[in-house]
Amino acid sequence: TADDAAAVQQLSTLFGLSAAQIAKRTARPKEEVAAALALAQVPEATRATVTEAGVDLVTAAKIAEVAGGHDDVADLLVREAVANPTQIEHRLEQQRRVVQVKEAVAARKAELRAQGVTVLDRHPDPADKTIARLPDLTGGPGAHGDQTDIDAAAHQATCPGHAVVVTERSWWAAERDGVLVADYAYCQGWKDHGHSAATRGSAGTSSGAKGDEATAERRRVMANNKASDAAQVVRRQWVTELLQRQQLPTDAVEHAAVMIARFPALVSDHGARQILDDIWPAKSRKAETTEHPSKAEATRALLAIALSVGESGLPRDFWRTATTEWGGQKARGVRHLERLRQWGYPLADVEATWLDPKTTTKEA
After folding, report:
1. DSSP-H helix ranges across 14-136
2. Model confidence over 76-105: pLDDT tens digits?
3. How would you class 222 by CB atoms within 10 Å of its CB: exposed for 0-12, middle for 13-18, buried for 19 or more?
4. Per residue in 182-230, pLDDT tens?
5. How many Cβ atoms are within 10 Å of 186's Cβ, its own excluded?
6. Which helix (H) or strand (E) holds 364?
């Protein structure tokens, strides 16, 4: 792969050939040529990591694009591509989000440090009683404990103990307003700076084994929801490409008939219609522009509707629901994923785990 990439790059830089010319003269797919040229633009260390591992050019370019300058991400993705190549698209999407958060956290830390704020690398050990979060304190510098809650901005401007931890926000919150990270304000040496411990908010705190179980469950929910978000991107890209194929699955009509007959109300559901617009763009709908569509285009239209109904049965927390409906019938999301798997779609771990009732409590 490294040699192939270098050869394509030389044809471009030394001989001035365009990507189309290189593809024609070397009889290589255009996608491979574009991948080799893209690899020339990434940092040398990352390029070496992805091209010397034995993965193909296109996968190497995808890994390099996602990893950017993060060598740890490149290493992880290369290992995944070698060990489990069918899952690489899912891993790429998951790590794309990881990199976005990493860069957002780094940018926010740099911004705070430029303002003279002390930035901590991680949340302090709860056993360290010399530092506390602002919501757990009352009173400003030099004040008494009966004063109101501390304002973070005012604390930053007036208290020398002010410190901040920057971490990732939940994805639902990030998607709501586009902000990926959150600040958590602390005060170091809070007693010396005139603050008092708040007495509120401790009654519902869990501890011991139950607290550990709750923490583990929260971790599982967060991990599975992130995996579900990433899987949706990959799955819908795959479905969109499926609908663009000249040759549709031989059982496409049968699947469409089952989905539409089983879930007729969802054919006109607002959510399903929005998904339909995403996976089957209006410019592709030849069956809608003629009174007598071909059998192939009629099949494509029916399949697109059925796929949108299936996708509407997979919200981000689908993995928390039962795989059956009333009367023991399969949920539409289950029917959808099972058929996609039959047609060659590589299920993400969170999707595969959901379909196996013996592993429903696992973290995907």
Report:
1. 19-26, 30-39, 44-51, 57-67, 71-83, 88-114
2. 999 999 999 999 999 999 999 899 999 999
3. middle
4. 999 999 999 999 888 887 544 344 455 666 788 788 888 888 988 999 9
5. 21
6. none
Q: Which structure tokens are listed for 257?
A: 């008939």
What would the DSSP string read from start to end of 39-70? HTTS-HHHHHHHHSSS--HHHHHHHHHHHTT-
C-alpha span between 66 and 95 (Å, rounded): 7
Q: For residue 168, what are its two tokens?
A: 């990732």
The contacts of residue 309 (CB under 8 Å, 6+ apart) are 259, 260, 263, 266, 267, 269, 272, 332, 336
Residue 97 CA to its chain's centroid (Å) = 5
Q: How confident is the model at residue 246 (pLDDT cuts 50, 70, 90)?
A: very high
For the entire predicted model, the pTM comes to 0.77
What would the two tokens of residue 9 be? 């790059």
Return the closest-CA partner of residue 184 out of 172, 160, 161, 167. 167
Interacting residues of 275 by C-beta distance below 8 A, sequence separation 6+ = 236, 308, 311, 312
Q: Is 290 left (phi over 0), alpha (psi -120 to 50) or beta?
A: beta
Contact residues for 88 (Cβ-Cβ < 8 A; gap 6+): 59, 62, 77, 80, 81
Residue 209 confidence (pLDDT) = 65
How far apart (Å, rounded) are the C-alpha atoms in residues 250 and 40? Answer: 42
Q: Flag whether pLDDT at 364 surpasses 50.
A: no
